[in-house]
Amino acid sequence: MQDVQEPHRRIRAAYTDTTITVYQAYAPRLGLPAARDGRFPPAWKRDRMTWIKPSFLWMMYRCGWATKADQECVLAIEIDRAGFDWALANACLSHYDRDAHADQAAWRRELKASPARVQWDPERDLHLQALPHRSLQLGLAGEAARRYADEWTVSITDVTPLAREIHGLVTAGDLDEARRKLPQERPYEPAGGVCP
Fold first, then answer.
1. What is the model's pTM?
2. pLDDT tens digit string along 135-149?
3. Is residue 24 within 8 Å of 77, Cβ to Cβ?
4. What distance in Å separates the CA atoms of residue 171 and residue 152, rounded to the nearest whole number?
């Protein structure tokens, strides 16, 4: 089997024809009611930036396999693909890039006007070590955060037990079984190929 070189930046996700799965980690006081009710509770702040991650292993890196404070509850949030694609189409890079922006002032104007932020972070392996290619982290604010919580969300599942099971397998050295348990992510192309 030929080893296919990963592009430097790629969205990798579990998705269907109509939905895409993203991950977030919360304190149990927010995560457990969200999973139970299939929607974010009123205590979830719709007026602040929230970051969603299509990569399961990047989420595991961020939350330390569900061990970091206030990140002990890992959620798989299945959202509408049209909403996800809308967020990407209305996003700007979270940092200034001279290849993408005329100057820093132009980037700041775009940042202020955009309801979403794209950040490319190193993808992670099962040991949570950085890989040479990057995966998407998408920040949602304002209209995008409200629509994510109240319109785009199709289902919310507590995947903390899965995170702990995979971590246990990695710790025990059973990497093949750990890989088999991972969500099946594949390259994702947004509608129109739009992604900063």
1. 0.91
2. 999 999 999 999 999
3. yes
4. 36
